[in-house]
Amino acid sequence: MGSFVRDILTTLSYEPEPAEALRFESEELSRLDQRLAGVAQAGSRGRTAISIRPSDCSVWDGNPRDVPGLSAESCRSLIESIAQEDGNRIPVLVRHNAPGADCPYELLVGSRRRFCVDWLNHNGRPEIRLNAMIVDLSDEEAFRLADIENRERQDITELDRARSYQSAVDRFYGGVQSRMAEALNLSNSQLSRLLSLAQMPDEVVDAFATREELRVRHSEVLTPLLRRGEQRERVLVAARAIGHEQQRFAAAGEKMISAATVLSRLKHAAGEGSTSQGSETVLLVGDARVGRVRSVKDGLAVELTLTPDTDLDQVLAIVREAVLDSRARVAREIEAAAD
User: Fold this and answer.
1) 0.85 exceeded by pTM
2) Phi and psi at residue 52, in whole multiples of 5°?
3) How many separate domains does the chain show?
4) What is the number of other CB atoms lying within 10 angstroms of the CB of residue 257?
5) Do 334 and 312 share a structural domain?
């Protein structure tokens, strides 16, 4: 079975097929699934097929899927398909666990199928078993195989994938990014961008409504800001505040702050959304000027010019940061004059 899977590793492309080519009844399949389905339908000639309980296998920690994030709702169509077929027609891939482990097997590919069978076992279908094939693969081969499958899954977030890469580069490739990029058929720049996403602070992650909304394109904007000490602290302060707002909105069942607005507010917190011109700070939303903060005799004056479609929450966040920055600048000017 190991040689069969190694053949898959060398022949399967990393480029995803068009979505319409991946339909199999109600389930959307990766090409790895299609190959496994073909093996199963051929009777698994010469290959080790077993029927196990979901509890017989632990999930390998090198798989990027967020297993705790799986739910009956997100897996509904697959649950229904497995229930109708009295089992999973596409086998999962497992390998033998080390002697003395709590479970005899370790799951390498098929976390969703394992979850669905386990859910059915606890919801009226205890007789259903998890169909599996035993393989003999190294950790690095198992990682590449899981990566092939998961690149075609829409429910694997970019953040989960990036964090799995961050762990794998040291664990399997000796910390050499170029080795990992070559093994995964990625360019060095693609891998670097993913690793930058993996390094986003928890405060920034929590500022977004869901993990799915934080994407590589966001980290490309934020990473340079987080590398500068003063800007980093301002970004983290703003991220914590946005995270608290998101929690309040979620608890109240209200619409949460969009990813675009979160990104804009973090940029503005870093000083990227306003420009200082002498004693005046120009306020920008995107490339549009919406006002200014300027020094006057008794303090600061804020002037705004808003169109009917201007995002008021975004403007107010920009104004707050600009006022704080202006106060700090005035304080520095006073201190310098006193010296």
Assistant:
1) no
2) -130, 170
3) 4
4) 20
5) yes
Please tell me whether residues 9 and 116 are part of one structural domain: yes
Q: Domain ends where: 156, 171, 187? A: 156
Q: Rounded to whole angstroms, how far apart are CA atoms 290 and 302?
A: 11
336 and 219 in one domain? no
Domain extent for 35 = 2-156
Kindly give the confidence (pLDDT) of every residue in the chain, 339 residues in length, as a single tens digit, with 9 standing for 90 and above.
Answer: 555 566 666 655 455 444 444 344 334 455 566 666 655 555 544 456 789 999 999 988 877 665 667 889 989 999 999 999 999 988 999 999 988 889 999 999 888 899 999 999 999 999 999 999 998 888 998 888 888 777 766 667 899 889 989 999 999 999 999 999 999 888 998 999 999 999 999 999 999 999 899 999 999 999 999 998 888 999 999 999 999 999 999 999 998 988 888 888 898 888 765 555 546 777 776 657 788 888 777 788 889 988 887 778 778 877 887 777 777 766 666 666 665
> CATH number for the domain including 83?
3.90.1530.10
CA dihedral 14, 16, 17, 23 (to 10 degrees): 120
Between CA 75 and CA 113 the distance in angstroms is 9
CA–CA dist 124, 118 (Å, integer):
11
Q: Of the candidates 107, 98, 97, which has an alpha carbon nearest to the alpha carbon of residue 131?
A: 107
Q: Answer yes or no: do 135 and 222 share one domain.
A: no
Tell me if 48 sits within 8 A of 133, measured CB to CB: yes
Same domain, 111 and 59: yes
Regarding whether 263 and 228 lie in a shared domain, the answer is yes
